[in-house]
Amino acid sequence: MWRLLPPTALLLLASAGTRAEGLPKAELSLSPEWDRLLEQDPVTLTCRGNRVEEDSFARWWHNGTLLPCQASSLSIAAARVNDSGEYRCRTNRSALSDPLRLQVVAAWLVLQARRWVVQTGDPIVMRCHSWKNLTVYRVQFFQNGRGKKFSRHNSEFHIPAATSEHNGSYFCRGMIQDRRNESSEAVQVIVLGVATPPAPPGKLAIVSLLPGLLFVLDTGLYLSVRRDLRRALKKGRSDTTTRSKSPEDKQEQ
Ligand SMILES: *[C@@H]1O[C@H](CO)[C@@H](O)[C@H](O)[C@H]1NC(C)=O
Ligand SMILES: *[C@@H]1O[C@H](CO)[C@@H](O)[C@H](O)[C@H]1NC(C)=O
Ligand SMILES: *[C@@H]1O[C@H](CO)[C@@H](O)[C@H](O)[C@H]1NC(C)=O
What is the pTM of this model? Predict the structure, then answer.
């Protein structure tokens, strides 16, 4: 779909990052929101700088190669497998965006999700999407090979609040136009543990200083105890030496 530009584009990509230092990162979004698609699906990528005024100009990279498109939206009317890969963009008033990975699959069915990595407690929404939106009957969702949900028509699967049990590999299966029994590829859904809020920096500094501090205190204590002990011993010794000048005492001193 895109006429590829020479590898000098890669240099531009590298300098685009440094030149735009201090500017907010551009934000890259998808419409429809699914990052896994089937061939022939339409998709539009939109690049937004962090400004109230809309940027009408953007630069686009696909797998590190500069694309000829300079509009703030990049429309793919009918996706192809080779449209898969990493997209980045930036506008005049924004730095290079984080990469967005698009995967175009040549298949009858694809499992789609809003996000593949969720936090515990977040909802998971999955969809069993068919090629050219052909009607799918008897849709079933599988987790780690076990059937989870069966539905005659509805091809969506909702998990209201994810737990570690929902972590795993998912695929869907259905009858396309009541004839073809087809399955999607399996995809990993990762449920992260409950997020622990990061410790405030002050506390963190104390925690990391603590072992050192204890060591210093310990050594100080040890040294002063040793000094006192020596003093006491010396005193005791001189007391005893004055009283009974034993030969061992003399040798030691
Ligand atoms: C993708 O493949 C088609 C042929 O199937 C070709 O015409 C097109 O230029 C390719 N696009 C890219 C970005 O390589
Ligand atoms: C979730 O699944 C992934 C891949 O299947 C695995 O690497 C990870 O350890 C799992 N995490 C939990 C908490 O079960
Ligand atoms: C579809 O095929 C699988 C085996 O690949 C089978 O277990 C399942 O029952 C079939 N579904 C229908 C609705 O025929």
Answer: 0.69
